[in-house]
Amino acid sequence: MTEYLLTGCGGFVAAHYLEYLAQADFDGQVLGVGTTAPAQVPTKLRFRFEKINLLDFEELSLLVRAVQPKFCVHLASMSSVADSWTHPKTSFVNNTNIFLNLIEAIRTYSSETRILSIGSSEQYRTKDVSTQPLTEMDLMAPNSPYAVARCAQEWLGKAYVAGYGLDIVMTRSFNHIGPYQDSRFVLSGFSRSFAQALINGEKTVNLTVGDLDVVRDFLHVRDVVRAYEAILHGASKGDVFNVCSGRGVRLFKALDVLSRLSGLNYDTEIDKSLLRPMENRSVIGSHDAITVALGWTPSLNFEESMSDLLTYWIESLAV
Amino acid sequence: MTEYLLTGCGGFVAAHYLEYLAQADFDGQVLGVGTTAPAQVPTKLRFRFEKINLLDFEELSLLVRAVQPKFCVHLASMSSVADSWTHPKTSFVNNTNIFLNLIEAIRTYSSETRILSIGSSEQYRTKDVSTQPLTEMDLMAPNSPYAVARCAQEWLGKAYVAGYGLDIVMTRSFNHIGPYQDSRFVLSGFSRSFAQALINGEKTVNLTVGDLDVVRDFLHVRDVVRAYEAILHGASKGDVFNVCSGRGVRLFKALDVLSRLSGLNYDTEIDKSLLRPMENRSVIGSHDAITVALGWTPSLNFEESMSDLLTYWIESLAV
Q1: B2-176+218-243: CATH topology
Q2: A interface mutation test: which of B56, B83, B86, B100 has the most A CBs within 10 A?
Q3: Cys-Cys crosslink for B84: which of A17, A268, A306, B145, Cβ 3.0 to 4.6 Å?
């Protein structure tokens, strides 16, 4: 029997999820699905990849019926807010409709499966900085196509729990950072630029940037995975938890950290195309709820996380 | 040039919309689209029907680009809460995804079009009866797949207004009643049963019912259309208005009204399959906002509305 069904198994978080399971000596079956296989899988993990289109309900249903996993960790998503403004339909469909396909297939063919649904800090109303850090009681007010998709996902999850008794646990995840992260995400992109400059022997990094004055809550992806496991194994059906560091970092400060870690200076030039409509100024979460309920706390601080990310890029680019 | 693009033109509200436009001597072009043509169209209206699948983005885009309507009145929907529990995916896709296709096609090919987006009272959190009547400031807390779809629709609408400057005006519409309404909707079904009994010469109507203790806010569909026209021509971009009568009616009371109007007695038997998961106990709206902003008020009261509905069924069934 397959214990974990992992969607989006070729992605950034999934890579760390597989490492986590291997390090925890998990000896059950893991079935990864999605459009791409993981770049690498820890050898001791009993892992199998199946390429499927999660938008194809028939295909997904056949698989769910055959496998009936104990857990479904649903990591597949298009998680870029910026991309949701350039391709709103693609973003929405690949978040909400995929999720709806998944829970409908599980409701129909494997109703005992526990599902971990990943939401986003973008769901919150964040106009008013004085209300931060954001707790799970704060209001939803999605202001991008991506945020709407995530809100719809959470509400569908809640309706499936209340109306059908499905076993869904949910997160509102804040920004992640860590090795393997695509350089389109801001701090991974900056780290890549610093790593490239180091490799090239340059003294100064020239960066094309968007709005560096925004504040975000960045959590190391390994802590993200630890939180997901805590929720998957400890939360009550229908629970929703913030997954965050609890600290806000202004993007300017992240550049100072990279400068200190690398010993390089930097220059910035603003590219207006990187400015998003209605950017949230500040997004900081509270992890009090998950800490109280499940005992989870972050284990890596911001500097450690950035150091990990920079090291990853140095190793990747030096190859 | 086509002035009105009417989606869902074969439906209940659309029938009244076309009558309204004819009675108002509207002399522009009306293009109706959807899966079915209207059963009848007022002869003096310049109306054309085109059968299209609103889920087919290419097809819809071609049409929007060719037509570039001044107004798009988006009436196409699957508006049954009960059906959304039996077919959640179909309900969601045929509400939210159709809407997203429409606004994306209009954003891309006809960005000056003003769009009327229809939402629902089901979007509100209604646990606490003391907060009623519901105003536009009350919280969203969708608790059915249908309600989630309508919330997502409104949020997408707001994101398209704020992020792209699209001209969308929105409603949260409460229950409608009136001629042509499908008998699956509760008061139309009851009216049909009373009409059939009258025609059969029976003294007592036997009704199979769900929960008769719930309270809903019913508005005559002709008043609904008047409100939609007021919003379409008078609201500011991004506005959202309740469309409702402002009065709550317990379903029991509706049966008493039908009994009085018809002179018949009635017996009820509860069918548990008609009970919905998590039924909202009471849903009553406030129309203060639209009254203050646009001068709209209901013109027909509940008894007049029921009388109209009963007459419609008597005429339909007597044929």
Answers
A1: Rossmann fold (3.40.50)
A2: B100
A3: B145
**pLDDT computed for residue A272 by the predictor:** 84
Distance of residue A94 Cα from the nearest chain B Cα, in angstroms: 12
| pTM for this predicted structure | 0.94
Query: How far is it, in rounded angstroms, from Cα A124 to Cα A232?
Result: 23
The ipTM, to two decimals, is: 0.93
Element (H, E) at B222: helix B221-234
- The more confidently predicted of residues B127 and A314 is A314
Please state the CATH superfamily assignment of the domain spanning residues A2-176+219-243 in this structure. NAD(P)-binding Rossmann-like Domain (3.40.50.720)
| Dihedral pair phi/psi, residue A120, rounded to 5° | -140, 150
- How far apart, in whole angstroms, are the C-alpha atoms of residue A40 and residue A31? 14
> Between chains, do A145 and B156 touch, taking CB under 8 Å as contact?
yes
Is the pLDDT confidence value at B129 over 80?
Answer: no
Q: Are A10 and A35 in contact (CB under 8 A)?
A: yes
User: A219: burial class by Cβ within 10 Å (0-12, 13-18, 19+)?
Assistant: buried
- Is A89–B96 a contact, with Cβ atoms under 8 angstroms apart? no
Contact A159 B152 (CB under 8 A): no
Residue B125: the pLDDT is 78
Extents of the domains making up chain A: 2-176+219-243, 179-216+247-283+300-318
For the A179-216+247-283+300-318 domain, the top CATH level (class) is alpha beta
Could you say which of B88, B93, B152 has the minimum Cβ distance to residue A148?
Answer: B152
pLDDT tens, position by position, A223-265: 999 999 999 999 999 999 999 999 999 999 999 999 999 999 9
Q: What is the CA radius of gyration of chain A?
A: 19
Size of interface A-B (CB pairs under 8 A): 86
B158 and A151 within 8 Å at the Cβ level: the answer is: no
* pLDDT tens readout for residues A68-125: 999 999 999 998 888 999 999 999 999 999 999 999 999 999 999 999 999 999 999 7
B142·A163 Cβ contact <8 A? no
Residues of chain A positioned with their CB less than 8 A from the CB of B92: 100, 156
How is domain B179-216+248-286+300-318 classified at the CATH fold level? UDP-galactose 4-epimerase; domain 1 (3.90.25)
Distance CA B97, CA B108 (A): 16
